[in-house]
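Much of the work behind modern protein science is quiet bookkeeping, done one molecule at a time. The protein below has been through that process, and both of its lines are reproduced in full.
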Amino acid sequence: MRKIQMVDLISQYEQIKPEIDIAILSVVEKAQFINGPEVSAFQTELENYLNIKHVIPCANGTDALQIALMALGLKPGDEVITPSFTYIATTEVMALLGLKPVFVEVDKNTFCIDPESIRSAITPKTKAIVPVHLYGQSAAMESIMKIANEFDLFVVEDNAQAIGCDYTFADGTKKKTGTIGNIGCTSFFPSKNLGCYGDGGAMCTNDDELAEKIRMIANHGQSKRYYHDVVGCNSRLDSIQAAILRIKLSRLDAYNNARQNVAAYYNEAFENVQEITTPFKASNSNHVYHQYTLKLDGIQRDDLQNYLAEKDIPSMIYYPVPAHRQKMFSAFGSNALNLPITDWLTERVISLPIHTEMEEEQLRFIADEVKTFIQQTKK
């Protein structure tokens, strides 16, 4: 049995090595490293895949979130509603821009932001909502967009973990996550469902005016070279990463399907284990399983993680400390917030290995060892 990895990028690379090597060498030979034709081609192909008018590539997912918020013209002190149960980048950019993150609860089943918590947190200073499609499942976007429209709020989707996920509206209409709000943001960090071999990110929108602002901000605030209309930054996807992403984008649906098959194996293996709650799959989201995250009840998570490590089975806690309890946000008084579901989840979640190259032998070994630990604990 091959060594088990949380994400096995080497095995994935071996499957596409000839194409990847040729693509990288082609960029090097042409020496068009910045804003080359590979970037333009990837942009167009991603627009077609997402069925959206504008994709603007950038340097990483954190930049994508920051630039998106800058493009909306928000002012220091404006409030942005977002879940606390997320990676810190989602909320870090708000503080960097002088905005006030307003942390709200998530749904206990989906791990995504709770629409009713959004509604109860709205004040006259609220300007935007940043839902996170956590672990590969869509947030309840239909309800979120209704609230946003009712209160005239912007919606910026953090789609770093769910690219390729379909959201189905009540009328049967389907849209890709990241294309529903005003702006969608994603990351191409290597471990993502669509990952490059370095850093990368993108923003997408159907709004022509917003797209132009985003392009300007990402390129030093200039509309044409050496004419800088707004304060911007320097955030771009390099050509080598774009060339890699073009190859992997053509396989994204197959990659997501492979992850869904892994999740299905785990789900069946743990179906009758009462101490484990397998990931909930909402009826309006096809879930692309960026992470396969269990909820544990009646067993010590750290003990399970240590036991798995002894068996050379990696696992991760996403996330052990929610954003509202991070020291960096103490100035907002967020540590005093009462978010019992978020706090409950941070004490009980654990993510098992899931990636595109997993073998049944590995899955069987992981599932058996998890169940063995639980059986030993009950004795």
